[in-house]
Amino acid sequence: MGNFIKVVVFSLVVIWLYVVFSANYIPPITPAPPPKEEVLDLSEMTMDDFLALGEKIYDGKGTCTLCHNPVMKRAPLLERTAVVAKERLKDPRYRGKAKTVKEYLYESLVDPSAYVAKGYGVTGTNDTVSPMPDVSKGAIGLNEVELWAVVAYMQKLAGVDITVEIPRGEAVAATEEKKEEKEEPARTPQAVLEKYGCSACHKMTEEGMDPGLGPDLSKIGAKRDKEYLRRAIVDPNAEITEGFSPMMPDTYKDQMTAGELELLVEYMAGQK
Amino acid sequence: MQPILRSKRALLLLALTGLVVLFMLMVPAGDGYVLHRTDGLVYAGGGGGGGSEAVSSEGAEAGKVEYPPAPKLKESDYPTISGINSRVFVWLVAQLHLWFAAFVLAVPIFVFIIEAIGMATKDERYDKMAYEFIKVSITAYSITAIFGGLLAISLMVFYPDFMKYLTLIFGDSFIWYALIFFAESACLYIYYYGWNAMKHGFRKWMHLTIGFLLNGVGTTLMLFANAWVTFMMSPEGVDASGVFGGNMWEAIHNHLWNPINLHRFIANVAYGGSVVGAYAAYKFLSATTEEEKAHYDWMGYTANFIAIAALLPLPFAGYWLTAEIYAYSQQMGITLMGGVFAWLFIVQAVLIGALFLSANYYLWCGMERSEGAYRYTPYIKYIGFVIVVCFLVWFTPHTMILTPSELKALGGQYHPILGPLGIMPAKNTAVNIMIIFTFLSFLLYRRANKIPTVSWASFGNGVQIGIFTAAMVNIMILGVYYGYFTNTVYKVASSVPQVVATLMVIVAGVVIDVFMYRGAKEVGPLKWGKMPERSQYALFLLAVSFTWLMGLMGFIRSAIRQHWHVYTVMRDNSVDAFTPTIGYAAKVVSVGTIIFMAIVIFIFWLSHLSGKKQTEYQR
C-alpha cells in the first residue's frame, strides 16, 4: 500500500507541475474568437466606414498580418504594395490580367501567383508560385465586398488615392469579428489604473516601482492641473516630457468611459 | 481466475454489442441518403439542425448519384444537455479512447516481436514476458471498446449533423471498421487464450501467425480512424462547398493521412512501452522475492528500451507531419507553429525533455546491474550535461514575456545572446544532438558488461567515434551556418541532412556494435533486480509525461482546425467553436490523464488480483 500511495502521489505531483507551468508560466494568450457573419447596409456606408471594414478584415478574418508582418517576415510587407503596383504591372514576371492598381491589388488576393515578390515564392519554383492561398476561398473565404474593402485599405496604407468604389445596392452579407463581451467600467481610481495598466510604464505611487518608460506620476498633482492631465490622457503626444519618447498609445480616448477618465484625473490631481 | 475472466468477457461482450447497435443506428442514416438519391431528390445533409431539405437535381434524374453540400449550421442546431459541456465531454472521451487504443494497438506489436525473439533464441523468459505484456493489455482492450462506443454515442448526441455529414462520405467505411473490429477481437482472444495451448512446434508458428494477423487488423483499424480524423483537417474528395464526389478512397487518402499514420504508429509503440514500463516498475517496487524483482527489472528494462527505440525516430515523423501541414495549408501551418500555439511547443519541449531525461536516467541507473559498467561511469556526467544543455536550448522561447523595466534593460523582446536560440535551427540542432547522446547512453549501457573479442575491436571503436564526431560537426555546421548566415530556403532545407546525419549515427552505430560484440566476453553475470528504487520512478515519469504529452498534442492537432468541423468545408457554429487557451487545454488534459491513470491502476490491480487467486488455488 505504501508503494501504491507513493506512486500515486508522485504521478499527481508530475501532472500538477505540468499544469502549473502551462497555466501560469506560459503567456495567457486568448485566441481570436471565430468570425461572425453580419449583414451590413452598404447604401449608407461612408468611405471611412468602408476603410474601417477593410482594416478589420486585414487584421482579423483575412488573417493578412499572420504572414505580412515585420517580425516573422514570412511574406512581404504590404505598406507600399499600392505604390509599387504600377511597376509590377510592367514587370516581365507579371502574369496576371489586371490593368489598374486596384485591379492588381484585387488580383493579388484571389490569384497570388500572378506576381510573386522576389524571395517569397514556394521553394523550388523560382518565385513563380506563391504560398499564399486564394483568400476568396477556403478557410478565409472573403466575399466580394470584403475583398474590395481590403483593397481600399491597402491603398490607404500606402497613402495613395483610394480608387475603389463602395459597392452599393441591397444590404450585402459581410463579416466581422465577434465582439468581446462588454467590460464593466472601472469604479475606483485603483481599478482604472489596473484596467489600463498605467503602472506598466509610469511610477504611480510613492512606494510603487518605477518602470522608467514614462514620466514619474507619483507626485504629478503638485506640478500639473486637471486640464493638463485630462489632455495628457486623451492626446498624449500633444506635449512630450523631456527625456521620454512619444510611445504612449493615443487610444485611451476611445477606450475609457467619461467616468473612468474623470476618476483618473481626480486621482492624479490629488497625488501631491 | 474464472469469475474474473467471465466478468471481463461479459464487459467485452457488452462493449461489442454496444458498438454493433451504434453502427446499425448509423448505417440507416447513411443509407437514407442513398434511398433518396435515386428518386431525383437529394437531401441537404440534415443542415439546419436535421431539418433536411429536399432539392431537385438534374443529375439525380439522369441516374447519377449527387451529394448535398456540407450543412451550414446555426448555434441552435447543436443539442445540449444541461450541466454537460458537450465539447469537453467529447474531448475527454475521445482522448481516453485514443490513449487506450494507442496502448492496445502497440502492445501486440512488441509482444509479437518478443515472442518471435523467444522462439528464435528458445529462451522461455521472452515468452513469459510477452505473455505478461499481452495480459496487461487484454483488459485495456475492452475499456478501449467502451470508450469507442461512448465516443460514437456522444458525437451523435452532441454533433448529429456533423456525424450525418461524415456518414454520408464514410458510411461504408464505418461498416468495414465494425467488421475489422470483430476480426481484431477474434485474433486477440485466440492469441491470448491460445498462448499456452500453442506453445511448441508447429502450433507455435500458428500462434505467431495469429499474432501477425492481430497486428495487421489492428493497424488497419487505426488507418480507418486516421482517415476520418485527417479528412477533418485536410478534406479531399469534396468540393469547396463540401459536396462529396463519390470516391471514398480520395477522402481516405487525403493529404495528411499518411503523415498521421506514421506518426501515430511510432508514437503508439513508444507510448505502449512506457505504460508497460510503469506496470513493471510498480511490480518491481511491490516484489517480495529476489526472483520477482529480477523478472520485473528485466521487464522494465525491455519496456524502456521499446519506448526509447520508438521515441528516437518520433521527432522526425513529427517533422514530416508538420511539413505536410504547411504544404497542405500555409495558414494552418502558421496557426500551428507561429500563431497562438507557438507557446505550446515550449510546453512540449519541457515534456519531451522530461521523457529524454527520465529514459536516460533509467539507463544510467541500469548500469549498476553490471560490474563492467564502472568503466563508463565517468562519462555519464558529460552525457547528462549535453542533454540538459540541449533541453535548455529547446526550451528557450523566441520572444520573452517581460516587465517594462526588463524590456527597457534588454532593449527589446529578444535577448541579445539567448534570442538566437529561440528559432528553429537552434532547436533542430539541439534535438538531433539530444537524440545522438541518448543513443550514446544506450550504446554504453549495451556494451557495459561485455568485452569484444574480435580482432578489429579498436578499429571498430575508432570508426564509431569518427561517425559520431563527423555527425556532430555536420549537425552543428548545418544548424549554425545554414541556420543563421544564409537565407530562409537553406535554413529550412538544412534540417533534412541533420536528420539524415542522426539516423546514420544510429544505424551505423548499431550495425558496427552488433558485429563487434558478437561472441563478446561477459565481465560478470548481469545482476537483474539490482536497481535502486528511485530508478523505477523514472519509468513512472516516462509514462505520466507521455500520457500528458499525447493529450496536449491531440489538442493542438484538433485545435488547428480552429472554428471548422471539416477545415474550410463545414464550419463549427456551436457555442464552443472558439479556440481555448493553452492553460485551459492543460487543465482538461490533466483531468483526462488522471482518469486514464486511475483506470490503468485498476487494470494493473485486476492483473495482480488474477495472479493472487491462482496462487491460492495452487496451494
Task: State the main characteristics.
heterodimer; A: 272 residues; mainly alpha; Cytochrome Bc1 Complex, Chain D, domain 2; two-stranded antiparallel sheet; 9 helices; 2 strands; 38% helix; 4% strand; extended; B: mainly alpha; 73% helix
What does this structure look like?
- The complex is a heterodimer of chains A (272) and B (619).
- Chain A is mainly α.
- Chain A folds into 2 domains: 35-177, no CATH class; 189-269, Cytochrome c-like domain (Cytochrome Bc1 Complex, Chain D, domain 2, Orthogonal Bundle).
- Chain A has 9 helices and 2 strands.
- In chain A, strands 1-2 form a two-stranded antiparallel ribbon.
- Chain B is an all-alpha fold.
- Chain B has a domain at 371-525.
- Chain B has a two-stranded antiparallel sheet with strand order 1-2.
- Chain B is globular and about 75 Å long.
- The two termini of chain B are 14 Å apart.
- At the A-B interface, helix 1 of A face helix 8, helix 11, helix 12, helix 14 and helix 17 of B.
Tally of distinct domains of chain A: 2
Main sheet attributes: strand count, strand direction, barrel closure of chain B: 2 strands, antiparallel
Q: Span from first to last CA of chain B?
A: 14 Å
Could you report the average pLDDT of chain B, rounded to the nearest whole number? 83
- Return the structural class of chain A: mainly alpha
The number of distinct β-strands of chain B equals 6
Total beta strands of chain A: 2
Structural class of chain B: mainly alpha
Write the H/E string of chain B, N to C: HEEHHHHHHHHHHHHHHEHHHEHEEH
Q: Mind telling me the C-alpha Rg of chain A?
A: 25 Å
Would you spell out the secondary-structure blueprint of this structure?
The complex is a heterodimer of chains A (272) and B (619).
Chain A: H1 2-24, E1 35-40, H2 47-59, H3 81-90, H4 101-110, H5 144-158, E2 172-177, H6 189-196, H7 226-234, H8 252-255, H9 258-269
Chain B: H1 2-37, E1 41-43, E2 54-56, H2 58-61, H3 86-121, H4 124-158, H5 160-193, H6 201-233, H7 248-252, H8 257-286, H9 290-311, H10 314-328, H11 330-337, H12 344-366, H13 377-395, H14 404-410, H15 424-447, E3 450-451, H16 457-484, H17 488-493, H18 495-516, E4 521-522, H19 533-559, E5 564-566, E6 570-571, H20 582-618
Helix pairs in contact in B: 1-4, 1-5, 3-4, 3-6, 3-8, 3-20, 4-5, 4-20, 5-6, 6-8, 8-9, 8-10, 8-19, 9-12, 10-11, 12-13, 12-15, 12-19, 13-15, 15-16, 15-18, 16-18, 19-20
